[in-house]
Every structure is written in C-alpha cells, then in structure tokens.
Design a protein that fits this description.
Elements lengths: L2 E7 L5 E6 L2 E4 L6 E8 L8 E7 L13 E6 L3 E9 L2 E4 L3 E2 L10 E9 L6 E8 L7 E8 L9 H6 L2 E6 L12 E10 L2
Antiparallel strand pairs: 1-2, 2-14, 3-13, 4-10, 4-14, 5-6, 5-13, 6-7, 7-8, 7-9, 10-11, 11-12
C-alpha cells in the first residue's frame, strides 16, 4: 500500500519513515501485549500515526487466519481506535479527543496496550502518552471490544505467528505523503 515509501535506520538511535501509508512490520509473537514508541510528528504527517497489535494481516486465507489486528490511529488532537477483521473490513470504536494537543517537532512517547478481560470474553485496549518524555505516562483513552470474533481470542494462533505494525498516514501534502517522520524507539512487551 502507499507510494514513495522509504524507511531509513540511522546509527544514532533514530529512524525515519516516508511515504503515504508506509508501514513497518515487526515480526514478534504478541497477544496480550504493549507497544511503546517515541516519535516526532511533523507537518507532513497531516493525518495520523497508526499502531497495531495482535495482527496476522499478511497471512493467507481464510479470513479467520488473517486478522488485521487491534489498532489506534493517533493524530495531534484525537485518537481513533478500531479492529480490522481482515484486509479492509473494519470495525470502529468511539473516537476520543486527547486531553492535551501534541505539537509538530516535539517528541512524544505513546504506549498502546491490548489485553483480554479477566473473563476472557472481551478485549480491552488503552492508550497512554508521555507528553514530556520524563516517564510520566497519562492514560488518554480506554475502550473495549465487546464482541470479538472467536479467532480474535485464539491465543495459540497469535503465539504461533503474529506481528505488530506502525504506519504513517496522510495524502494531502503531495504525492509523497508524510516525509521523514522520526521514530526514536519501538518496544514490544508481553503483558502476560
């Protein structure tokens, strides 16, 4: 997907991602998991940074084998959570405004978590932001998938093979889309 995609990794602990809908897949088995990422939004990122956990997006049919995952798209002032049952079949959860607007050119650390509820019947997700990169995360949103499909709760399937992804979105800045969105770190943790 996308156009003019480029991902550069530098030796100083930074990486830059360019191109509309350019994404980074990290092949790491994850189920009840947390993604932590530091990034610097810039004006070319005119839409969102999307994060996904519990994904098997690129696996072969049937649909039940290629869950797109649970995700959240974060812009400077709001977040849009949802799930992708399989490629381009989406269910959205209510959007929410961030308590504090982020700014272009400043680094933020996002922590996005996905975990089954204690009864194992629903999936809970939450997003935290460290606005000042001082280790003080603020929970900015929490939501549940009240009716996950059976394959979305098949822990063995995701521990066999799954991945996470980070994607930059935006098409209004020309054909290239987002340019040089800087990422400082990407950490995936198990919550089990």
């Amino acid at each position: 997907a996308g156009s003019s995609r480029k991902f550069e990794i530098f030796g100083d602990g930074t990486a830059k991602i360019t191109g509309d809908r350019a994404r980074i897949y990290v092949h790491v088995k994850n189920y009840n998991a947390q993604m932590e990422i530091s990034y610097i939004p810039n004006p070319s990122l005119d839409d969102t940074l999307s994060l996904r956990l519990r994904s098997r997006h690129n696996e072969p049919d049937p649909h039940e084998n290629r869950f797109g995952g649970y995700g959240v798209a974060v812009s400077l002032d709001e977040a849009k959570p949802g799930r992708e049952e399989y490629h381009n079949k989406h269910t959205s959860f209510p959007d929410f405004k961030l308590p504090r607007k982020m700014e272009n050119g400043k680094m933020y650390t996002l922590r996005y978590s996905v975990h089954d509820t204690t009864d194992g019947k629903q999936v809970e997700m939450w997003l935290e932001i460290d606005y000042d990169n001082n280790g003080n995360f603020i929970e900015v949103g929490r939501w549940k998938d009240p009716k996950p499909l059976p394959y979305m709760l098949d822990k063995a399937l995701y521990l066999k093979k799954s991945y996470v992804w980070v994607r930059v979105n935006g098409q209004h800045t020309g054909e290239e889309g987002p340019k040089d969105v800087e990422i400082k770190k990407l950490i995936i943790r198990s919550l089990d």
